[in-house]
């Protein structure tokens, strides 16, 4: 790749931070040189109730400042998203009560509405840090004020341990398709570096926190990663996620042991939310 121009997080991130992160990723981005990514399906809007029913545990996580991310119900009172989503534009953590989870949000209606009660961020995550190891900890849980009836919306189970070549799918919202979810049925893990995953799945502003899904042994879907960042390599949009097994187990233990673990961010970091993506123009990507 000849040059690296500029990049941003999907929820909207300071370009300097993402450039630094993606420079750290440049070595394994180079693995893409000369390769084509084939066999990917396009995004398909989940228009009807029948279309969206298998994915009704996926919803929008809205914040009082107008931004949103994608999130997934993984327990009756816990939703999974990206850690940078639960921070304000100045880098401080949102109050949990500022978060509203709209399960199965489609055409102005949700299967369930719940407000946040506590937020737990993966240990080792630091908003504003540019290391790849930090990007691989970009995961958070929001505890809900009331449980969601599992008979109404079954939580999605957790998986993990996937490697290069694994076939996965993603359900997500984005700034230009905020009213209903879209499904990319087939994309792939291109490379695994530690617990960070480089994937061919599509991403845009608002996709942060979207579940990366794979069928489990019993045929039911499992969340194996969440989408954290986006980039562009040789003209191909790339998304970056993490293996969930260790951080989610640690966060669930934090829920059980305390009132929540709150990691403060470095000050002065400006965010671009999904709500003002149009004002800022299209997202910037890593360019070859």
Automatic annotation (TrEMBL):
InterPro entries: Glutamyl_endopeptidase, Peptidase_S1_PA, Peptidase_S1_PA_chymotrypsin, Peptidase_S1B, Trypsin_dom, TRYPSIN_HIS
Keyword Chloroplast: no
One Gene Ontology MF term: serine-type endopeptidase activity
Keyword list, A-Z: Hydrolase, Protease, Serine protease, Signal
Pfam family, one: Trypsin
Top-level enzyme category: hydrolase
SUPFAM superfamilies: Trypsin-like serine proteases
Domain Peptidase S1 residue range list: 56-184
EC number: 3.4.21.-
GO terms (BP aspect): proteolysis
Similarity remark: Belongs to the peptidase S1B family.
Stated name of the protein: Serine protease
